[in-house]
Amino acid sequence: MTALAADRTPVVYGSEVIPKLLSIGAKANTLTYKGSLVVNDAGAGAPGYAATTLVALGVAVEQVNNVGGLVNAKTIQVESGVFDFANSAAGDAIAATEIGKNVYIVDDATVAKTDGTGTRSIAGKVVKVENGRVFVLVGIGV
After folding, report:
1. CA 30 to chain centre
2. pTM of the entire predicted model
């Protein structure tokens, strides 16, 4: 392959196949707030938290109260896209130099620059940092 010598129009693959919205059964005994970062936690949807085994799915479209409920007793609607999250602090604060890089889950509303010495899962990729907020591309439909 050679580098481009003229403009081209790339072919977008899968936009009609990969959903922007998905549904996942809620983890037992959880409360997921609207707008919270939702993760796949052993096959069930849960609010994000610091752990190494999670997969970020997107943000909750509405609040889902499964407190006292069994796994899958309720369903969480999750949206993929670019969303703003709180920035971590001190040495884990995200700056514009991280645009395009992975950031990591601190909780359901906060992301950090590092994996916390191997204690956090990837939230997504930084798109923008502005006014103390970090805009992250997150989800399987992105």
Report:
1. 18
2. 0.88
